[in-house]
Amino acid sequence: MIVVDSNVLAARNLTSVQTRAAEQVEELDPLWIAPPLWRYEFQNILAKTIWARQLTPEAAMAAWRTISTQMAENEHEPSPEKVIELSSRYRITGYDANFIALAMEMGVMCVTEDGELQRMFPGIAVSMKDFATRPSSEGRVREAQPVYRTRQKRSN
């Protein structure tokens, strides 16, 4: 199991120069999790690809349906305390802190192409390339805490 950020999800589900790298990551570890925030970030990525005329709105909706199905059971909410603590301590956005906090709480790596996060959290945040070439014994982080929340569906 690994935490993946929205750009890794996009690389896997939208054709790009990084698609093959994302596929290699998935071959090594097919259980991808993310905080619910991934939905909004991915929708923003889709919007930008539509604006750039790289996708039609119909193709974007098809990609959205595919990834929503894939990630339906793989959303986990990190603790707000951990998110705020990381944001204030490391001066990172709450968005980035969600992914890092989830990785820390689940005791797994966060695969991201964000170089700043890789530098700030070297034992946790790794690039797709580094994840694919790491020794197989490296996969769990030491700051693991068994606390996480599964996203609850709202009742109307």
Q: How many beta-strand elements?
A: 6
- How many domain regions? 1
The top level CATH class name: Alpha Beta
What is the CATH superfamily classification?
5'-nuclease
Task: Supply Rg.
Answer: 15 Å
Shape: globular
Distance between the termini: 32 Å
Layout of strands and helices, then pairs:
Blueprint: E1 2-4, H1 6-13, H2 19-28, E2 32-33, H3 38-51, H4 57-71, E3 76-77, H5 80-90, H6 94-106, E4 110-111, H7 115-120, E5 125-126, H8 128-133, E6 149-150
Parallel strand pairs: 1-2, 1-4, 4-5
Antiparallel strand pairs: 3-6
Helix pairs in contact: 1-2, 1-3, 3-4, 5-6
Describe the structure.
This protein has helices spanning 6-13, 19-28, 38-51, 57-71, 80-90, 94-106, 115-120, 128-133; strands at 2-4, 32-33, 76-77, 110-111, 125-126, 149-150. With 156 residues, the protein is an alpha/beta fold. The chain has one domain: 5'-nuclease (Rossmann fold, 3-Layer(aba) Sandwich), CATH 3.40.50. The protein has a 4-stranded parallel beta sheet with strand order 2-1-4-5. β4, α7 (115-120) and β5 form a beta-alpha-beta unit. The model is unreliable at 140-150 (pLDDT under 50).
